[in-house]
């Protein structure tokens, strides 16, 4: 059902993205998942089609679109048969590059933002460390000024696009202050001496998206590699989390929708005890529950997207949308696999991939527990230490 929030222009864009997904991505899902990577040409093709950096000005390779176009892209990429590409593209356009546009110099925008939106350069975001995940204040990677350079030392882990990225938007501690103060952002190019890929991580799901551990050992970058204001890195990076979480929710809803469609198809075709599974009340009610949860998550996500599009930042509701959509996606994928029975547990059936991929949505972009803390803080106020 068409939602009144979307205009005819939005729906035309949805149609073009869906055709691209059906032609260029979905047919390769099995192949790329088995290879544990998808080709970089996907970024280039999406750049040529104008699907990257939708909300940026044309001079930086964008399309001057509103936020809802990005939501549509997240939804349609969620239908491609694998969660990997939607995640990789979201990191590129919604996580690693927004700080460049908002806080970068003109030179940085031309060097990094423009080619990223054209699909000619791939970006990753370096926040998480072996001992600093949800607790961002515990980041230990440092950047110390040395004349006209900064010297970076530290390690990052669980970095999406980390193996293939041409550059990283990096969070490092530049001050002695504890907590969230004293962080700064840097743009570091692949191939910079002292910047290396230590390993590509082996994941349960999202198999064709590369996730890496990165090492910085006396990595020297020029002073102009600093992005934004020194000491304000945490605030420079955290402002965009609300948009990222709406995208995550939209993608979870879309992937749950496909899992439901797989379950509907299988329940009509699979015959047990002389009749299709769809004729059994237990199956019919399970499908009804799945569909209802998807619609509830979809409309909560759309409400948040509408607020965000109109300049509001409802942190509580966005956290609720991300939390509910992620948990719903897991429940729906699990139910879809259950309907498939033993076949659902076989690698030859795509429903198992939706089940495996869905699990990350409750961790990445803010865990369930972090979302609940944010919601509770909004309801009750922060607990004073």
Through-space gap between termini: 48 Å
- Characterize the biggest β-sheet: 4 strands, mixed
Helix content: 40-55%
In the CATH classification, which architecture of the largest domain applies?
Up-down Bundle
Q: What's the SSE pattern?
A: HHHHHHHEEEEEEEEHHEEHHHH
Number of helices: 13
Q: How would the global form be characterised? A: globular
The secondary structure category is alpha+beta
Strand content: 15-25%
Q: What's the CATH H-level homologous superfamily of the largest domain?
A: Butyryl-CoA Dehydrogenase, subunit A, domain 3
Radius of gyration (CA) equals 21 Å
Widest sheet: strand ordering: 1-4-5-8
CATH topology of the largest domain: Butyryl-CoA Dehydrogenase, subunit A, domain 3
Q: How many E strands?
A: 10
Oligomer: single chain
Q: Could you name the CATH class of the largest domain?
A: Mainly Alpha
């Amino acid at each position: 059902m068409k939602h009144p929030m979307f205009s005819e222009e939005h729906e035309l864009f949805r149609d073009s993205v869906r055709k691209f997904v059906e032609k260029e991505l979905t047919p390769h899902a099995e192949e790329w998942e088995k290879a544990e990577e998808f080709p970089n040409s996907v970024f280039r093709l999406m750049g040529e089609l104008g699907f990257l950096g939708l909300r940026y000005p044309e001079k930086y390779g964008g399309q001057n679109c509103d936020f809802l176009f990005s939501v549509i892209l997240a939804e349609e990429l969620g239908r491609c048969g694998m969660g990997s590409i939607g995640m990789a593209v979201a990191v590129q356009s919604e996580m690693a590059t927004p700080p460049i546009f908002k806080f970068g110099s003109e030179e940085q925008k031309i060097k990094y933002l423009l080619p990223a939106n054209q699909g000619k350069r791939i970006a990753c975001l370096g926040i998480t460390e072996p001992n600093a995940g949800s607790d961002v204040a515990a980041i230990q990677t440092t950047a110390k000024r040395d004349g006209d350079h900064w010297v970076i030392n530290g390690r990052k882990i669980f970095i999406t696009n980390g193996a293939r990225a041409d550059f990283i938007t990096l969070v490092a501690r530049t001050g002695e202050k504890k907590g969230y103060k004293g962080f700064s952002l840097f743009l570091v190019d692949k191939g910079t001496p002292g910047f290396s890929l230590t390993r590509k991580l082996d994941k349960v799901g999202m198999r064709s998206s590369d996730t890496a551990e990165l090492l910085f050992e006396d990595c020297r970058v020029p002073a102009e590699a600093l992005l934004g204001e020194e000491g304000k890195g945490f605030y420079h990076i955290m402002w965009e989390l609300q948009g990222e979480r709406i995208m995550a929710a939209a993608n979870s809803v879309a992937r749950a929708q496909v899992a439901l469609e797989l379950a509907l198809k299988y329940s009509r075709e699979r015959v047990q005890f002389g009749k299709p599974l769809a004729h059994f009340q237990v199956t019919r009610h399970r499908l009804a529950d799945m569909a209802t949860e998807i619609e509830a998550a979809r409309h909560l996500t759309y409400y948040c997207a509408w607020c965000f599009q109109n300049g509001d930042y409802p942190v509580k509701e966005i956290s609720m949308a991300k939390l509910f959509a992620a948990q719903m996606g897991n429940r729906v994928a699990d139910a879809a696999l259950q309907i498939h029975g033993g076949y659902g547990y076989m690698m030859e059936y795509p429903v198992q991939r939706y089940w495996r991929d869905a699990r990350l949505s409750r961790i990445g972009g803010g865990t369930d527990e972090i979302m609940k803390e944010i919601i509770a803080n909004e309801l009750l106020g922060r607990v004073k230490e």
